Amino acid sequence: METLRGVIRERPDLTVAYDRLAFMLRASGRIGEAVGVLDDAARAGHADRALLRSLGSALGDAGDLRRSAAVLEPLVREDTSDLQSSDALGQTYARMGRGAQAKEMFERVLAVSPNTAATWNNLGALLLSENRADDAVAAFSQALTINPDLATAYNGLGVAYARLGQTERAVEQWKKALALRPDYADARDNLERASR
């Protein structure tokens, strides 16, 4: 990380260095520092679309949902073909409880790129939050058809099956999630609850 900080000092216009440093900070659980790095770059005029998208996503992960939406909305408005920003904005809207707008963003992405497993997964999570377990099963299943290594989709599918009273199917999905990610706390907790 210090190497990237050095690159930023020498080449403050190199936006990819800010983005990579923020990515590494987020991966190590230092979300506040990641937001700070991206914020500093944006305020200094060194932000491109990718950096602003990263800032919007990081703000959402940090819980600053209003600011996340404020960063992402212009990106989506200015370029409706920017599917990554649309998906990130959909996630922010979902966290804000703005389900209809979140669904609109996810459907925009899927209309253009129907093989985007992460967006199907995000739609499934939104549908679960709206207590639409049957629809969530379909969305998570589509995500897994596209990417059978998506542990979060197996976990979500398990939750959807559990809500439909299909405990055996739920347990099977949580086990698949844990096979892919043995440290996946949500899947482990769900499996433990089902075993009681």
Written overview of the protein:
The protein has 196 residues and is mainly alpha-helical. It has a domain at 116-196: Tetratricopeptide repeat domain (Serine Threonine Protein Phosphatase 5, Tetratricopeptide repeat, Alpha Horseshoe), CATH 1.25.40. Helices cover 79% and strands 0% of the residues. It has 12 helices and no strands. It has helices spanning 2-10, 15-27, 31-43, 49-61, 65-78, 83-96, 99-112, 117-129, 133-146, 151-163, 167-180, 185-195. It is globular and about 55 Å long.
Order of helices and strands: HHHHHHHHHHHH
Strand element count: 0
The CATH architecture classification of the domain at 116-196 is Alpha Horseshoe
Q: What is the CATH topology descriptor of the domain at 116-196?
A: Serine Threonine Protein Phosphatase 5, Tetratricopeptide repeat
Largest sheet: none
The backbone outline, from C-alpha atoms, is: globular
Approximate strand percentage: under 5%
Number of contiguous helices: 12
CATH class of the domain at 116-196: Mainly Alpha
Report Rg: 18 Å
| Residue-averaged pLDDT | 95
Helices and strands: which structural class? mainly alpha
- Provide the CATH superfamily of the domain at 116-196: Tetratricopeptide repeat domain
Low-confidence stretches: none
